[in-house]
Amino acid sequence: MARRxxxxxxxxxxxxxxxxxxxxxxTCVLATRDDTAQRPxxxxxxxxxxxxxxxxxxxxxxxxxxxxxxxxxFDVVCSQHEYTLVNSSVIGGSRSCTTPRAALALRxxxxxxxxxxxxxxxxxxxxxxxxxxxxxxxxxxxxxxKPLADSGTRGVLSWRNAAERAAVADLLESAGAQGPxxxxxxxxxxxxHIDGVVRDGQVLFxxxxxxxxNVLSIRDGGIVATVMEHPRHRAGLYERAHAFAExxxxxxxxxxxxxxxxxxxxxxxxxxxxxxxxIPGGSFDEMIRRQHGVDLHDEWARSxxxxxxxxxxxxxxxxxxxxxxxxxxxxxxxFPDEAEVAERDGVEHVALTARVGALAAExxxxxxxxxxxxxxxxxxxxxxxQRIQELASWFAARTVVAAARRQSAPDPVAxxxxxxxxxxxxxxxxxxxxxxxxxxxRVAAVAGQMPFDEKGAFxxxxxxxxxxxxxxxxxxxxxxxxGLTFDDVIKLTYYVTDIxxxxxxxxxxxxxxxxxxxxxxxxxxxxxxxxxxxxxEVDALALVPEA
Length: 547
Fold this sequence. Notes:
By secondary structure, this protein is α+β, with helices and mostly antiparallel strands. Helices cover 27% and strands 26% of the residues. It has helices at residues 13-21, 32-38, 57-66, 85-92, 100-105, 109-118, 162-174, 235-252, 284-292, 296-305, 338-342, 381-398, 464-481, 502-509; strands at 5-9, 25-31, 48-51, 76-78, 126-129, 143-147, 157-159, 181-185, 190-199, 202-211, 225-228, 257-266, 269-276, 319-325, 330-334, 347-352, 359-360, 372-378, 400-401, 419-421, 436-438, 442-449, 489-496, 520-525, 536-544. The strands form six sheets. The chain has an eight-stranded antiparallel beta sheet with strand order 13-12-9-10-11-14-18-16, sandwiched between helices. It has a four-stranded parallel beta sheet with strand order 3-2-1-4, with helices on both faces. Strands 5-8-6-7 form a four-stranded antiparallel beta sheet, with helices on both faces. Helix 1 (13-21) crosses helix 10 and helix 13 packs across helix 14. The protein is globular.
């Protein structure tokens, strides 16, 4: 097969990698904000088109022309991003993987429900309103109001009685909210997600997951988490889900690609919630790969390139689940790293996206705002769910945000309040450390930390990297007790029994400190430490502002 030139609208690293594995040459239209942090991972300058808004056809076409490109230079125009799906279908025309009509049905919640109901499938009664004061006239005693084309629970509000409905209307009016938006009756039942592959109008594969709590329960402090229903133990449910998905894909005219559909399970039927023509969020893709042996990214790329599907499910004996690791809202000062999360019972995969110093959103408002996700396995649904709940609770308890710090604790020094001087006059520039770090405040001294875990057990016999990781975890805990993080550290001193261990120690250090603004440091080789199996000890100085 000849090499295919693909225009991908919307930044999706996994999509680029999947297309490249099949020999495609990919050019990506991406937002300027995504350029600096992410683009170098997969594409060079010649294969990127930067625009402010890749959902805009005008900006996409102008961006292509500025780069000396045209849609006709590509064999395929596609998107794996929910928000750019319609744009790719319009821009691509006959080169697109879908039509504008089908793309709209996968985005607009009102249009898709109309098609679903026309096909005879159960769906909530719904009404589109243009002005928020019309909400008072909606007949549903229990219901929700939501944007027509957003994702997750962003902008979704619910009510349980007429008084709450009126309060929601007042809230929207006072906020100056504008329609159109969709109002729906409340649907009872457990919330499921059906993910799958469709080719030539036939659903070839479905995966069924059950949310531990309906997603809107985050409003009451719930978590976003799911456990896969095992196909060998839930054969009847899988048959119902496959038949439902087949009818839904035909109604939505989604003939080729992947899908993520939310439904509600009632005793005698499934009720349609909403559907996207995309890979599911979080680590659902990894959870499905481990549970079923199916790579949704690969199947999506095959559909884009016109290759035969390769889906051949081989279910694992275990039960898998996924959890969004949420935090309180506020400035993130500290949270467990990926290695720590991976050590928890049943954790098979971890992807943390948050960083220290970032502002965490209110997780109870938006379901897809989180510090990261994890895939968890167990011997059955009950054990998997228990491990997920324990992991979510542990992660939240171990996370420190500025708003949660006790009042007596001082505010940490803002990173830009410290001055890092890497090349003082007459001194060779430093590499991997800073010659001088200065700033306002009081000095906090952290005693030499050694590789003992929270129970006092020694960690990493003979392994300098393992010992260093435990040392820096302990250091992080000490700093957090003073309301500080590694951003506030001005000096680290390393005591090592063998200077050859230093590269291993510094590689671990870089997981904890900013490599762009590292602290000052000193390395000292010593004859011995507190115990003969100790390979290192590290102490620190940090700055705390005056109260």
